[in-house]
Design a protein that fits this description.
- The chain has 341 residues and is of the alpha/beta class.
- It has two domains: 4-204 and 212-218, P-loop containing nucleotide triphosphate hydrolases (Rossmann fold), CATH 3.40.50.300; 229-340, Magnesium chelatase subunit I, C-Terminal domain (Helicase, Ruva Protein, domain 3), CATH 1.10.8.80.
- Helix content is 48%, strand content 15%.
- The two termini are 40 Å apart.
- 35% of the residues are buried.
């Protein structure tokens, strides 16, 4: 049983591990600070990420490098229209015993049995195949031949989508998008970052990445994150933000009732708190602050709210609506002051 002093020391170790991981990634990755930060938060909060960005932004390199520095096994699946669920989860193979010549089925594990799985262009495969992966993400196991096979721990899925070409794709339904902790937008690099990329990638140097943490340590840190305390006013603020996105709630701002078709469900409140705990711990803090919740609102809420036609006609994106919501909803400290007053 860990004590409070042990947890404080473990949080300090996690903060140092984060700095070491980022330092290793800087050998091969230029920029992408927010993306790296949010991916690490997702791993230690036991969540999954959906990355939206155009091709050529080093998403695959980032994921494989992160797996290497964290001593995690890594596999990549290129999603295509002809991909079958068994191509992800595995299949039953008929094998013959060389001695008894008895035939029996043996489960051949698929690429989902890994620590870090990159699901490249997940919206290019039919819903049946998407559902197979999403079920494994949620249940952390695969069922085949009447038996359950547990996935490796830790298990983390990073799925990508190309925002440009949507013809012939199968967009994920809202209920399946909700299974992702974060929806991360990967943007173009700045001019200085792109110059650094050109200078780095066009040389013959191959940086060697060091392993910073191992699987068992990551699992311990995941448990540590769950033990981070959350002040009551911070929890109330996270719940208030999620509830304010729902147009049918009486306390929702007027612009939400006017511009929102659907708001975020209870999973948004849970994820704001869990991700806030991970963000605080990764920064060496033993408590969650309002800043942690506010910093994570965009990646957590942008795929959980649906603007209506009026919002789209005014050019209001989910990010614009969330930003306006942060301005409208009082912070936890103000809520606390209102209660005391």
């Amino acid at each position: 049983m860990s004590t409070e002093a042990d947890d404080v020391q473990a949080v300090e170790e996690l903060g140092k591990a984060r700095d070491a991981i980022v330092a290793e990634l800087r050998k091969v990755i230029v920029g992408m600070d927010d993306v790296i930060d949010e991916m690490m938060i997702a791993i230690f909060a036991r969540g999954h990420c959906l990355l939206v960005g155009v091709p050529g932004l080093a998403k695959t390199l980032l994921v494989s490098s992160l797996a290497q520095t964290m001593s995690l096994s890594f596999k990549r699946i290129q999603f295509t229209p002809d991909l079958m669920p068994s191509d992800i989860t595995g299949t039953e193979l008929l094998q013959e015993d060389p001695e008894t010549h008895e035939r029996r089925f043996k489960f051949q594990r698929g690429p989902v049995f890994t620590n870090l799985l990159l699901a490249d262009e997940i919206n290019r495969t039919p819903p049946k195949t998407q559902a197979a992966l999403l079920e494994a993400m949620q249940e952390k196991r695969v069922s085949s031949g009447g038996e359950d096979y547990k996935l490796d721990e830790p298990f983390f899925v990073l799925a990508t989508q190309n925002p440009i070409e949507q013809e012939g794709t199968y967009p994920l339904p809202e209920a399946q998008l909700d299974r992702f902790l974060f929806n991360i937008l990967v943007k173009y690099p700045s001019q200085s970052e792109e110059l650094d990329i050109v200078r780095t990638v066009t040389t013959d140097d191959e940086p060697e990445l060091k392993e910073v943490v191992e699987g068992p340590s990551i699992i311990e840190f995941q448990h540590l994150v769950r033990r981070i305390p959350v002040p009551e006013h911070v929890s109330e603020y996270a719940v208030a933000l999620a509830r304010a996105t729902r147009p049918d709630e009486s306390e929702s701002p007027e612009f939400v009732k006017k511009l929102m078709a659907w708001g975020a469900g209870p999973r948004a409140s849970l994820n704001l708190i869990l991700a806030g705990k991970a963000r605080a711990a990764l920064r060496g803090r033993c408590h969650v602050a309002i800043d942690d919740i506010q910093a994570l609102c965009l990646p957590i809420l942008r795929h959980r709210i649906i603007p209506n036609f009026a919002a789209r006609s005014e050019g209001m994106t989910p990010d614009a609506l969330i930003t306006k919501l942060l301005e409208e909803i009082p912070s936890g400290e103000k809520l606390y002051e209102q209660k005391v007053g």
